[in-house]
Amino acid sequence: MAHHRSKAALSRESAASALADLGGQARRRTRLRALTLGVVLALVVSAAWPVVTAPGERTLTAYFTAAVGIYPNSDVRVLGVAIGSVSEVEPNGTDVKVTMTLRPGVPLPADAGAVVITPSLVADRYVQLTPVYRGGPQLADGASIPRDRTATPVEVDDLLHSLNQLMSALGPQGANKDGAVSDVLTRSAEYLNGTGQTIGTAIKNLGEFARTASDSKDDLFTSVDNISKFTAMLAANDGQVKQAISQIASLSKVLADQRDQFSGALTELTQALSVVQGFIKDNRGKVQSDVDKLADVTKVLVNQKDSLAEALQAAPNALTNVLGAYDQANGTIDGRGNLLEYAEPK
């Protein structure tokens, strides 16, 4: 009996141990699954985060008079570098509405325009945005460019049609019906024969003049503005200007009437100057001596300027005293002397 109970107890202990091992393995597998799931989620989030946080593409709408050769997926460029593509082209009344999708991060000026560019006759056309952004307000997402800020190239058919009209107008059924155009070409060839270098030099000089005028356009415009202001001032003071012109005309008339007298006066002045020149030439030594003496006299006067000032200050009183001492009845000057002034000092 005891032996059978020992075997049963061992069986129960073995079963309990096996169950415990199974529970531990299950818990380890659960923790491993959770860890694996967390790593996978972290990788997915790190991979998707730049996509989620990156700015989205921008849209731009432009209105053209025509959009020949512009289709969805046509390039949109700045300075020839693609920054997006055309997403839709549709008619809009008398205009063509072109919707574009632009890459984010490329700034454009708020007053940007759009131009359809034709690189060559066989190359695909694209939309060029201009000018380049150099600071200031930027073009917002979803903005529109009106038709007055867009341009399209002249079509080859239109160019050929205009050329055909010109040639027909100059042809035998037009201006050259009586040989006028042929005569002009013949005469022009005769006149221009051998003058190619001169004409080339003239064209070069004209180009340099245009370049100089372009470099000095600010000064030129300033001068034109100042001239405009001066003209406006003259117009505002028309009465004074007319009066000044009338006075100048009167003065000119007086001078014209007295031109004989002026001529005689100038002739006499010339003769007088000639006499003075001869006198100075003949009496140069004496004149120099007199000038030297005059300089000495001037020097003495300068040295005695205090005494002269005192004399000039006392002269009015002295003359007054002389007039007071004059006896008109007897014709004498009465005076009184102080002999004590001459007494010998002790």
TrEMBL record:
<dbReference type="InterPro" id="IPR005693">
    <property type="entry name" value="Mce"/>
</dbReference>
<feature type="domain" description="Mammalian cell entry C-terminal">
    <location>
        <begin position="138"/>
        <end position="328"/>
    </location>
</feature>
<keyword id="KW-0472">Membrane</keyword>
<keyword id="KW-1133">Transmembrane helix</keyword>
<dbReference type="Pfam" id="PF11887">
    <property type="entry name" value="Mce4_CUP1"/>
</dbReference>
<dbReference type="InterPro" id="IPR024516">
    <property type="entry name" value="Mce_C"/>
</dbReference>
<dbReference type="InterPro" id="IPR052336">
    <property type="entry name" value="MlaD_Phospholipid_Transporter"/>
</dbReference>
<protein>
    <submittedName>
        <fullName>ABC transporter substrate-binding protein</fullName>
    </submittedName>
</protein>
<dbReference type="Pfam" id="PF02470">
    <property type="entry name" value="MlaD"/>
</dbReference>
<feature type="transmembrane region" description="Helical">
    <location>
        <begin position="34"/>
        <end position="52"/>
    </location>
</feature>
<keyword id="KW-0812">Transmembrane</keyword>
<dbReference type="InterPro" id="IPR003399">
    <property type="entry name" value="Mce/MlaD"/>
</dbReference>
<feature type="domain" description="Mce/MlaD">
    <location>
        <begin position="58"/>
        <end position="131"/>
    </location>
</feature>
<dbReference type="GO" id="GO:0005576">
    <property type="term" value="C:extracellular region"/>
</dbReference>
